[in-house]
Amino acid sequence: MNALLLPPPSATTARFLHGLNFSRPSLSTSSYKHSPLRSSVTSLSLSEDDVVTEEDGVSPYSHRRYDFTPLLQFLSNYSSDDNDSAYSDPTDSQLAESYRLVPASLWHYLLKSLASSPSLSTSISTTYALVDWLHKHNLCFSYELLYSILIHSLGHSEMLYEAFLLSQKQTLTPLTYNVLIGACARNDDLEKAVILMNKMRGEGYQSDFVNYSLIIQSLVRNNQIDSNLLEKLYEEMISDAIELDVQLLNDIVLGFTKSGDVDRAMQFLGMIQGYGLTPKTSTVVSIISELGSLGRAEEAEAVFEEIKEGGLRPRTRAYNAVLKAYVKNGDLRDAEWIVNEMEKNGVSPDEHTYSLLIDAYGNAGRWESARIVLKEMEANNVKPNSYVFSRIIVSYRDRGEWQRLFQVLKEMQKCGVKPDRQFYNVMIDTFGKYNCLDHALGILERMRNEVIEPDNVTWNTLIDCHCKSGDHNKAEELFDEMQQRGCLPCIATYNIMINSFGEQERWEGVRSLLRKMKTQNLQPNVITYTTLVDIYGQSGRFMDATECLEDMKASGLKPTSTIYNALINAYAQRGLSDDALNAFRMMRSDGLKPSNLALNALINAFCEDRRDVEAFAILRSMKENDLKPDVVTYTTLMKALIRVEKFDEVPGVYEEMIMSGCTPDRKARAKLRSALKYMRQRLKSQTL
User: Fold this and answer.
1) How far apart, in whole angstroms, are the C-alpha atoms of residue 268 and residue 179?
2) What is the DSSP string of 389-442?
3) CA nearest 206: which of 166, 173, 182?
4) b vs e for 611-621, b when ≥16 Cβ sit within 10 Å of the residue's Cβ?
5) What is residue 58's predicted lDDT score, i.e. its pLDDT?
6) Of the chain's two ends, which shows fewer C-beta atoms within 10 Å, N or C?
7) What is the pLDDT of residue 7?
8) What's phi and psi for 68, nearest 5 deg?
9) Angle, vertex CA 255, rays to CA 254 and CA 260, nearest 5
């Protein structure tokens, strides 16, 4: 028998019912005229009309109704330990003969009904006994199929523990394996599903393609989808020669889209089309939406056109996805065009359409046009919500016109729209960005007065803006108040506070925060480790910084360019050019492509260490690898030359900067003036 690790029992498991309070009526197989589906688990009476088809080999004109109450009452009167007593009872044989003509499909339907009954009027143990009884009397062939049906039904009823218990009653076969894996995936117990798949593969069985679909759907549903994980699942499918049906391919496309790997998603979309299959409209729309979020408007439009060329009529969601791409890119004319196309083709804009269009007008500074859209919404009986107004505020915030927030608030009140939590969060963020901290705290008080409970976003925004303004004490007060009011800090909250404590060099406080995270079962993420490396590096605690980097790798997280940039920059600021160079080499060995930020930091390290030759070697390397030096690159090189008193070479670097298409900034001009000043002084001293 296969031994499986059981999941924790559900609340219903402890209640195995061993008796039914049914009176014992006489067995009836009366004639019954044809009617639509009519079955009642409470009466435990089923008709052949419910499930029987011509394939069952039963006359469609018999229309018999079977009352299963006597059988279930008989089985419930005996526990699983009293099977021998039950089978020696003469009633057992009588019942077997009475139900001899019941078709297999009706037994299957009965099992599904009993296992999925929300009232659980029939005990689970009785349902198990029914399967054993059917097998003993050969009333329904394929014992394996009976158990699989029951496991499947239990999984659908969120009774995974019971499904595992049942699976241990016999040796697992490919069918029961697949059904059990499917039950785990449907109940979002992916760890058990993967263990079962590996165990199944180890026994030489192949998993069902449906299970891969269910696992991917669960990952998407729980926002746990990851491009690398999906690639591994796909490699397993290819290795096991799994046939990819259209549903599985659609799930793969959606999985890659949700993981942010839209290019891979488009490859699988092409695979669907190459096989002559038709992708789901919702799948294609998800790709358009992701392309829109990335601002890849031309590609979004191309995929959108494919929908129309395929004979499908795009609906509002598809148009909105393309509209989002135009808004993201600031293409106001194209945004207006796509909305006109919607109306021309009889597709009604919704709240999201209007909010995106208002976003576009807001970004273009056309407030009057945005007001016209609001009036159009009212004319079309689409009431604007607080999200629409929050987008207007965001557009003003990003353009530095945050004072117009109060004008938007008045317009909102005029439309009879009440602010919600999200709207207030945007207001707090706007005030925070422009250091109006009293106003931000005033919004928090206003939320309380309106009985709107602040969430993690509210608290994180308030804490972060106080940290950035240097008011670390108030930030810590808010952090404590957040917890006192029953809002548990999330990983983002801890990252903000770790950075705050690091800036204050409160290292024991940093360690305390990391311990608190673990008590909440929150694991440090990439941002946590990047923050730790940065604060340790800026304080010269390089041993702690490198330990964090190693801990990150040990935890299975891959270091990013940002974390190496922070480390290289920290070494550079202290003139530790060799250490900075070693960090750069580690970055390359981890397969990361160096960015201008990392290379500029490395140039700065050589500059601080008065190693101008190595600094210019970095410049040559950038050119050879098609990396365009920027203003920071040339300014840092000018600083390096000044450090080693090669003033006469500075104008040449400045000229090269201009010739390369870079516009000198204030710092670059200041370096040039310094060099020219030193050159004049030197020339003057030589003439004297």
Assistant:
1) 27
2) HHHHHHHHHHTT-GGGHHHHHHHHHHTTPPP-HHHHHHHHHHHHHTT-HHHHHH
3) 173
4) bbebbbebbee
5) 43
6) C
7) 39
8) -90, 0
9) 95
Q: What pLDDT shows up at residue 418?
A: 87
**If you search the block for the tokens 């054993």, which residue do you land on?**
132
Inter-residue contact 513 to 501 (CB < 8 Å) = yes
**Residue linked to tokens 């077997």:** 96
Contact status, residue 624 vs residue 594, Cβ threshold 8 Å: no
CA-based end-to-end distance of the chain: 102
pLDDT confidence of residue 500: 95
Q: Using an 8 Å Cβ cutoff, are 447 and 454 in contact?
A: yes
Q: What is the pLDDT of residue 103?
A: 82
Determine contact, residues 459/493, Cβ cutoff 8 Å. Answer: yes
Q: What local confidence, expressed as pLDDT, does residue 32 receive?
A: 30
| Nearest by Cα to 404 from 372, 377, 368 | 368
What residues pair up with 66 in beta bridges, in sequence order?
Answer: 46
Q: Please check whether residue 321 is in contact with residue 354, taking contact to mean a CB–CB distance below 8 angstroms.
A: no
Tokens of 311: 């004979």
**Residue 47: which H helix or E strand, with range?**
strand 45-47
Neighbours of 579 (CB within 10 A): 18
Looking at this protein, which amino acid is placed at residue 45? S
Instruction: Characterise 69 by phi-psi region: left (phi > 0), alpha (psi -120 to 50), beta (else).
Output: alpha
pLDDT for the residue numbered 462:
95
CA-nearest of 362, 364, 288 to 323 is: 288
Beta bridge partners of 46: 66
Beta-ladder partners of 64: 31
Nearest to 325 by CA among 298, 365, 362, 361: 298
And the tokens for 283? 């799948």
CA–CA distance, 478 with 462 (Å, rounded to integer): 8
Residue partners of 502: CB distance under 8 A and separation at least 6: 510, 531, 532, 534, 535, 536, 538, 539
**pLDDT of amino acid 469:** 92
pLDDT value of position 502: 94
Report d(CA 643, CA 13) in Å as an integer. Answer: 77
Give the separation between CA 660 and CA 12, rounded to whole angstroms: 73
Phi-psi region of 138 (alpha: psi -120 to 50; beta: other; left: phi over 0): left
Quote the pLDDT of residue 574.
83
Residue ranges for the chain with pLDDT beneath 70:
1-64, 78-88, 115-126, 141-173, 175-176, 687-688
* C-alpha closest to that of 427 among 392, 399, 473, 382: 392
Sole residue written with tokens 């940065």: 534
- The reply to whether the predicted model has a pTM over 0.85 is no
Q: What is the pLDDT of residue 124?
A: 64
Q: Which residue has the tokens 């329904």?
A: 140
How far is the C-alpha of 342 from the C-alpha of 457, rounded, in Å?
Answer: 35
Residue type, 663: T
Q: What is the pLDDT of residue 82?
A: 53
d(CA 431, CA 576): 40
Residue 47, beta-bridge partner list: 65
- Residue-level pLDDT at 143: 59
In 3D space, the residue among 81, 96, 77 whose CA is nearest the CA of residue 22 turns out to be 77
pLDDT, position 256: 92
Per-residue model confidence (pLDDT) at position 309: 78
Fill in the amino acid letter for 435.
N
